[in-house]
Amino acid sequence: MTGDSAADDDDRGGSLGVDEVLTLLSDRYRRHTLACLDGLPAPVSLEDLTDQVAGREFQQPPDNVSMIKRTQIATALHHTHLPKLEEAGILVYDDDGGKVTEITIEAPLTGFLDKIRRHEG
Predict the structure, then answer these.
(1) pLDDT tens per residue, range 35-58
(2) Is residue 111 part of a domain?
(3) For the chain, how big is the Rg over CA atoms in Å?
(4) Which CATH number covers residue 67?
(5) Nearest-5° Cα angle at 47, 42 to 50
(6) Among candidates 75, 73, 116, 109, which has minimal Cα distance to 90?
(7) Would residue 9 count as lying in a domain?
(8) How many domains does the chain have?
(9) Inter-residue contact 70 to 55 (CB < 8 Å)
(10) Parallel, antiparallel, or unpaired for β 99-103 and 91-94?
(11) pLDDT of the residue at 12
């Protein structure tokens, strides 16, 4: 036996392994981001994505979330979470243009997202 199959899948460039999916979903901003992007056509601007993530994070309309909080979320998305999701092959983020230009959410990530939506709303 050479190792676990999730690690082998990652080495071959296949779909995400369960460990990688769980690591990506361990942060609530990434969960919110993926839930917002799932099913949306690209491109999605950082500003629009920030508003949607802020609305989910605070469970209220984005306009009711302070500009300071939305700026903090936008900064975290831009510098940390969108690059991590891009590195995992889930999206393409044009950081100069501030847009998610491609979105590819596939199994096993879709199954986990469905469960998260039921749990987190």
Answers:
(1) 999 878 899 999 999 999 999 999
(2) yes
(3) 15
(4) 1.10.10
(5) 95
(6) 109
(7) no
(8) 1
(9) no
(10) antiparallel
(11) 40
